[in-house]
Every structure is written in structure tokens, then in C-alpha cells.
Amino acid sequence: MDLTFENGSLQTPRGHAFLVFDNSASPSEMWATYLVVLPISIDLAKYVPPFLMGQLGDAADHDLSAFAFPPFPEKIESYDQLTELAAEREDDVILGGSIDPSDVVTAMSTVSEALQQYTDACASLDQEIEEEVQAIEEPEGFGINEVMYSLMNDGDKLSELTKLVGRLRYAVEGGEDVMVREAESDILTLSRLLPENHQIPRLLEVAKAAGNANAELAHLYLQRCFFILREEYAKLSELDSRIRTLESR
Predict the structure, then answer these.
(1) What is the number of helices (H) and of strands (E) in the chain?
(2) How many angstroms separate the CA atoms of 107 and 100, rounded?
(3) pTM over 0.85
(4) CA distance 123 to 106
């Protein structure tokens, strides 16, 4: 079955949703249940006394990470009222199509199928978030470099920045991707210890780009950092003008 989101999105499910159906025999009549996908997996067996385990059967082997309650949709008085409530609560609203309320088994099966699709969508979103977090995790040795940089005075930091930019330019021109990533990581680490007006992100951007013009821009942005450090504002104004001219070409 296809899930149609009236509120929310299949790409970014919230983990809690109203699942709404119309009555196949009376389309104006609406029925609904509520889907919940918990962010924490719950092992049901941990909370059931041993003497009840046999009575639960296979249910004890499954978790309660996701469920629909009630398991069979209930008739609702007003669809508009439901959507207003969902908006206030920031719930997803999903249209599941039509059901026959007199066919309980089929209706419950349809709810179960929708719950599984919704759970899969939540799992996919969780995986995307996990991958994004992993992508920005600090590489090995990151903490050591940050401690080392934090012990430097501002002049030493800029001297280290000059070395790193030189290493980055060498790696870019030589097509050394691993060296590029390492130098970029070190520059980003160092940038957190320097004022924003040094414009290190822009310096990194031009230093990573190939070409003589970008090499010259990288050099000018480095000079700019030293002018700010020495409070040579007259030279800084002239330098900023040169940078704007070169970037406008």
C-alpha cells in the first residue's frame, strides 16, 4: 500500500502519526488509529514475569518498538478536528485509503502493513542521521591537535596556519586526496581557535581550489590574518580591496 502524507513527509517521519481511512461503503465516514515508533527499542520479555512467558508465546520474542493503538481503527467525528489536533501536536497525518469496518481481520492487516512502512521510513531516517554524524566525527588524533593548537599564541597559530595552507596547496596541485583531507581537517581544527574575522572558511575554500588565481587569493587571505593580528588596519583595507578585485574577475 502507498502512504499518503497529509501532514509531514515520508522522508522525514516524526515517529508518531494519525493513520486515517475512509469507509469503503461510505467514503464520507472516517476511521483512524495512532502509530507510534519509539526511539528506544523495548524488549518485552524483560518486563514479563517468568510464569507468564509461556502464555505470551511468540509475542515475548518481539519488541515494542512500534505499535498501532487501537489495533483496529476507530470511527472519528471530524477529520478537520483531527488534522487541527495533529498540527498542534506536530503529528504526522497519513491517509491509508479505504477499509471495510465490518472486515476486522483485513482492516487490522492493513494497519499492520502501514505501520511497517512507517517504521521502515523512521529507520531510514535514523540511518541517514547516523551516517551524517559519522561523516562529521572527529578523525583520530583530532583532540591532540586541538590541545596543541590551544597552547599556541595567536602568532604561532597563524604560522601553523601558513604551513597547513602550504601543505594543502601542495596536495591539491599534486592530486593527493588523502593529504588534502588531512590538511583540511587540521585547518578546520585550528579555525575554531581563531576569531571569525580571520575568515578561515573562505581561506580554506580558495586554498582547496585549483588554479593560480586561487593560490593568490589564499596568499592574500593569509596576509589578511596577519594584518588583523597586528592591527594594521590601513594595510588591511587596501588588502581587502585587492581581494575583492581578484574575486570579481
Answers:
(1) 9, 5
(2) 7
(3) no
(4) 26
